[in-house]
Amino acid sequence: MALSAHATTGERIWYYVFRVLVAVVFIYLVFPILTIIPLSFNSGEFLHYPLQGFSLRWYQDVIASGQWAVAVKNSLIVGVSSMILATVLGTTAAVGINRVNFPGKELLVALLISPMMIPLVISALALYLFFAKIGLNDTYLGIILAHTILGIPFVLITVSATLQGFDYSLMNAGASLGAAPLPVFFRIVMPLIMPGIVSGAMFAFATSLDEVVVVLFIAGPAHRTLPLQMFSGIREHLSPTILAVATMLIFFAGLLMLTLEFLRKRNEKLNAPANIAAH
Amino acid sequence: MAQQNTADTSLRDKLRRAERRKKIEAVSLIAPLLLIMLIFYFIPIGIMLYRSVDNSQMREILPQTAAALSQWSGQGLPDEAAYGAIVADMKTAYPARTLAAAGRRLNFDKVGFYSLLLKSGRKLKKLGGPPYKEKLIELDKKWGDPHYWTVMKRGLRNITLMYLMRAVDLRYDDANHIVGVPKEQAIYISIIQRTVYISLSVTLLCLLIGYPLAYFMATSSPSVRNLLMIGLLLVFWTSLLVRTLSWILVLQDKGVVNSFLLYLGIISQPLSLVFNRVGVYVAMTHVLLPFMVLPLYSVMAGIPSYYVRAARSLGATPITAFFKVYTPMTLPGIGAGCLMVFIQALGYYITPALVGGPRDQMVSYFVAFFVNERVNWSMASALGVVLLLMTGSFYLIFGKRVNITNMKLG
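YS: structure for the whole thing
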């Protein structure tokens, strides 16, 4: 997109205008999030600039306050459990689905990833009504199962993507050499589709860590997760403590993003035939 | 020859057996997930769908009346059995305080039912023994009006369309025809319109600012592209709540935007930018922008630059080359991005709830409202069905053309 030497004046003007335009869009995208970080280190109680001084008091507040600690603990319990469940169920199903062709396969896949497309409020209401019948509202198990359902589509999609470059004859080779199905899966299939599994798991965990609507419906006061605590905090009493939590979540997002980018690049390399030939 | 044949069949058998084994293996791999999804997702969705037409609550409040009226032809006034049944039902429902709920529910179809039931419930003791028909009509002449009885009969069926109809501002009139509710009671159609309007606007805004960004990313040098991609993905991965919170801070009266404009002297009073429609548009567009840019970018990155160069060398102006040659090639990306953004926007709840005012709330908000504040699960389910139909129909119409399953996630 470099400017050509023969560009007309109009083209020159447009070249710079377009650059400014993109810069404005990019600022719109990134800037609001970045404004949170300095404010969370503000020593004063105001939620706006200018800063009054540097302080870690709001971070100490997060650690000292029982409410936030409980919320973090709940989120970790729910996030890790639902991530494991969604990853195990999603990975095995993805391997199965990609193994065979059958009529109605597309429909099945569409149904399995539907929790991603259906508005959260509908899933929340449906689970709330169902859990009310079987007594799972206000329990860890209920939230974990709900978040498992919401995480499954991501695992299915990421694992299916890695399976597209997967050679199923490797499974037959393993079987013909005498390995039982489980060792074939764990020692041949899994190492090869690991990038997909890990990114699916991270999607599932991130979904759980950011999910408010379902939790709002089905969680009781004892099972408040971090997002629910934040949601009611923003709604009722916006304090700088929330900014400290938000900053930590931003850094977590950065970590997540870098890991996933690394995995994606690795998977691309693994799946590119030209690269394999070159090595 | 014979030997050859047996060898053939045994080979065929083996193959078939291997195929079958493969199938069994696949089914046993899929089954656990399918089972969990069935129990903890599809059955709950089914329960919600049923709840929107389920009328068992009314039949539990007035069981004898329901039984008596199911025998009634619906012509004229019912006989003594029905009057006896309603008195018996009111005797239990009035002290249990469920009569008021039934009254409110019937009042929607026929104004005056609420007061009729409560008044009758209060004066039950004065009635004495049967027969009740004359006595009830004497107590309130509405009991002698066949319209009330037809409404009651309809209101006590197993299945009711009342909630679904109410969710789109419809009701039955006295002649049992479906009509629109009076203007002052009509709220849901305008909420549905608002939901579609906000979602469409957000989709257009996303396209308008996402397209140049994606185009720039696809055509710039790898280092610039990586920087932009990292920014975009950081936003994508940052918690929805954090992003919404950041907009509250930026757009508030003393926020960065207002301070900056005041400093420049462009305004003398802070603009109200948040807790209103402006805030909803700004924050929702921000939250959904990655879903527009990522599919656009993945399409644009696959378009070789020589098409546009060829068009230019054949005499097209830059504008013609862009709109006639480049843009049509990006249509799959535009379609995928718009569908992703629009369908998600339709169901948005958290962002409008936090940065919008009361007049900026969408259908999702009212689903939550009926569950958490009104404890009216039927009405919540009916609105849920409406929302499901809205998203489902858009997905069915456009989803085929835009393969969502192939959407690249980050």
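YS: worth flagging: Residues 40 and 243 of chain A are 5 Å apart (CA to CA).
IM: good catch. Also Residues 73-239 of chain A form a domain with the MetI-like fold fold (CATH 1.10.3720.10).
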